[in-house]
Amino acid sequence: MSFPLTPELLGHMWDCLRKMPPFCKWKLPPAVMMEFRSPARADVFGEFRAPNTITISASLHGHFDTVFKTLAHEAIHVVQFLDKTENKNQHNADFLRKAKLVCKTFGYDFKGF
User: Fold this and answer.
1) What does the pLDDT look like over 36-84, one tens digit per residue?
2) Domains of the chain in sequence order
3) d(CA 39, CA 52)
4) Spatial contact of 98 and 28, defined as CB atoms under 8 Å apart
5) Cα(36)–Cα(46) distance, rounded to whole angstroms?
6) 66 contact partners, CB below 8 Å, separation of at least 6
7) 3-state class of 78 per DSSP?
8) What is the CA radius of gyration of the chain?
9) Model-level pTM greater than 0.90?
């Protein structure tokens, strides 16, 4: 089963995500301050481009849970950008610490996150 992934839908999912722990403590911007893209790309699963663009591949996502998990992953990159804790290693110690917290909260497999 799949659903049409649109930038509007991603914005609604983003606003939902940012109201849930641990995201609600990270002061993520509301969807109206973000740009969401959902191209039919097969080369990128999900991507954050500073300062405010999140791309989620419509061709590689067909289920809500997969989209939400990818959006959660990209949200960590957003908070790292805002907190200036990112570096050349995109998945640095700060990212991994936040990712483990997200995975524990939502029951995600950290190895696949």
Assistant:
1) 999 998 999 999 999 999 999 999 998 999 999 999 999 999 999 999 9
2) 7-112 (3.30.2010)
3) 17
4) no
5) 11
6) none
7) helix
8) 13
9) yes
